[in-house]
Specification:
The chain is of the alpha/beta class. It has a single domain, classed as NAD(P)-binding Rossmann-like Domain (Rossmann fold). It is 27% helix and 20% strand. The chain has helices spanning 11-22, 37-42, 68-77, and strands spanning 3-7, 26-30, 46-47, 60-63, 90-93. It has a 5-stranded parallel sheet. The termini are far apart.
C-alpha cells in the first residue's frame, strides 16, 4: 500500500486518516494542535512534531485544512512545505479554499 502523509485533523481530516489506515496505507500525520494526536494514533496513524518530517519518501501528501489562511500559514509563510515537496510526491488538496489558493 501507499505511504501517505496527511496534514489536518479536523472532523473531516480525522475521518479520512482513519479510512486510509483501514485501507492498509501507511499514514503519517501532522496537525497544528498536537492535542488530537492520541486519538489518531489509536487508529494506527503515526504522528510527527514537524511538518517537514512528512516529506521524506511520501508517495502522497494530502491536506484537509479549514481555510485559505491555514493553507498559506503552512505552505507559504511557515515551514515552506511547498518548496520542499519531492517532485515524485502527489499532492492532494482536500481543503475548502479558494481555487487560486489551491
Amino acid at each position: 500500500m501507499a505511504k501517505v502523509s496527511f496534514i489536518g485533523l479536523g472532523i473531516m481530516g480525522s475521518g479520512m486518516v482513519g479510512n486510509l489506515v483501514k485501507a492498509g496505507h501507511e499514514v503519517t500525520v501532522w496537525n497544528r494542535s498536537e492535542s488530537k494526536y492520541a486519538a489518531i494514533e489509536k487508529v494506527g496513524a503515526k504522528t510527527v512534531s514537524d511538518p517537514l518530517q512528512l516529506l521524506a519518501g511520501a508517495e502522497f501528501l494530502m491536506y484537509c485544512l479549514a481555510d485559505d489562511a491555514a493553507v498559506d500559514a503552512i505552505f507559504l509563510k511557515g515551514p515552506e512545505l511547498a518548496s520542499k515537496v519531492e517532485k515524485s510526491t502527489i499532492v492532494i488538496d482536500l481543503s475548502t479554499i479558494d481555487p487560486v489558493t489551491s
